[in-house]
Amino acid sequence: MQPDAQLVQLCLQGDGPSWEELVRRHTGRVYNLCYRFTGNGTVAEDLSQEVFLRVFRTLGSYQSAQGAFATWLTSVTRNLLVDHYRRTRRDRLTDSIDAMPQFEERPSPTRAPDSWAQATELSGQVQQALARLSPELREAVILRDLQGLDYGEIRVILQVAEGTVKSRINRGRIELARILGEMGVRPA
Amino acid sequence: MDWNCTLTEERLSDVLDGALVPEEQGAFSAHSVGCERCTRLVAEVNELVTRMHQIPLLDEPPFLASRIVAVTRGIPAQERRTSGWLAWIPAIRPARFAMGAITLATSFMIVFHAVGSISHRTAFNPASIYHNANRHVHLTYARGVKFVNDLRVVYVIQSRLSSEPQPVSEPSSAPLPQHESAPQQRPPDSETRPNSRPAPRMDRNNLRSVTSLAILMVSSGTQALLHETSRSVP
Taking the domain A1-102, which CATH number applies? Predict the structure, then answer.
């Protein structure tokens, strides 16, 4: 498998299949981040498309020496999510329905039905709790605990000090545990 | 080293990751033995994190990647570097956009002209359009009648002016018009005697022309005013 940086170079030379490979390789991660942050499948799809459109237009500004392509892509996604959050703030204030996000998870063909049911239940509960977190705590917890990024990558993406990253993750986790407790979801 | 509940919250990640130095780890352990709150907090968050790490990535919707590739494929390569405040220019460059804008503007002009006024939402009803068209026909007819009447008034005044007594020294070979039905007899009258005394005759003609013009202007102004008033009243 070709490294991302090499695919990026080929893309910049006008190689279509390389771009397609980059998109297919990273669509899942981008979609997951968008879905976890917004809690809405349709919005997450639109935002994912918007992310790749922006990446396509600004691909020339990516420097492989500054970090992995996936980290840069996550930064672009996170910035768009923040833009989207600010853009829709007024709608959320006026429309209380937005406070209860819709869950549209679909079964994975690669997962057994039982494990899918358990995963879906837990995933839905966590998603509901995430929706009640402030955006800065929410993004930190998603990046760390659902996307599996390390502190250094999160520091680059959020453009804050590592101490701040850890502090947000701590507060986010504590708040999330408290919300899940209020929802009646207790750790087993 | 002293440890407290606030430190447990602040260093929670390091506690869970096992990243405390031995001195810190000892202080934390000593504190948590007698602190049920910290013990419970660490246990709950540890369980939460463990379970969250088990949540698999959601499957992206089918065809999302294909859709993204299709969308980005439609963008020409030179557009990649277009950014900033000039980014909107390519959107209005195609001839299609210009044609669309012109067609839209023309359509609006036609509709507004037919409707007459769009101050009410009901202006686009068939009944309203018929009513407005009917009103325009009547207004045009009334305007025509008014214009003819104005002309008649002008001829009357001209005739009165023409019937004023002529200077004594001026011979009169033709009968002067006595009423408004004969204004057309005057031009041949004036043309047949150009050499007798042109200056007073020219003054009178000028006076007539200026008077006629003034009357026409006043009547046109009145007409326009009436027209605007009738338009503004629904």
Answer: 1.10.1740.10
